[in-house]
Every structure is written in structure tokens, then in C-alpha cells.
Target: Oxidoreductase
Amino acid sequence: MQLIKNQQLVDDQWLRVSDDDALATGNIIISLQRWQQDKPELVKRDGAIGVTLGPADEVASIADDLSHWQLIELHFPEFADGRLFSTAWLLRERYGFSGELRATGQFIPDQAFYLARVGVDAFQPANSAVLNDTLACLADFSVNYQVSVN
Model:
């Protein structure tokens, strides 16, 4: 599956592992619940770890675990919920997360530019047919009036 990373279309190098599946080798993305449940086992395994956060997940509650993760997936269950914009900014600016921040789910292409401004550097919309539209929207504006993460 393809996604946008650093303003280019690339193949996804991560495997999503559900809460019921055995842990795979390589780079995996797991739920926050799975991380909290299996943390002792996960920190010992080879391969990079990514965690999915939703709009209701509090950044302060996971701050101590950020050093274990190379990717944080911000999953938008619906486009009308903007809390993950704040989550992205907090992860980058307040907590210094330097790994990949990936927006997934029901965001719309028009939101990509603003997500990039708060630190998101990878995009995987629920509808892969809008990947090229999303990529184009990253260049919507050439001038920024406010300072931001990017």
C-alpha cells in the first residue's frame, strides 16, 4: 500500500498488527492498548514500533513511552474531529517526538497542508484514490504568516 511521506509517494514499510495477532518481525504498528498490555515484551523485540493514537488519547499520559516508538499514527475516525491536530503539535513541540507522524483515516486532502504545519510528515487517507489530491494539497500555499512546526 502506498502513502505520502516527506511529500513523495512511497510504499508502506510498516505492518499493522491487531490486538489478537501474534507479534510479527520487522516494523510493526500496534494499538495503544496493545502497547500498554504487552510493553515488557515489546521493548525487547527486534524491529521498530509504531503506535496508533485516536482523538481521545492524551499525549501527557504516553510521554514517558515516546522514546520507544519510531512512528506514531494519528488515526482520524472522522474528518470533523480536529483534536489530532493538537496532538501532533504537542508531540513535536512540547514532547520533542522526532519519529514519523502519520495521519490515517478520514481526513480530507484539504487538511493535509495544515496537518503538515503541526508536524505530520506522512499521510495515508482511508481512500487511496485521493493520494494524488492529498499530495497536491501539501503545496496549496507558498507563504505562511504564522510560525509552525514545519
About this structure: The first strand starts at residue 2 and ends at 5.
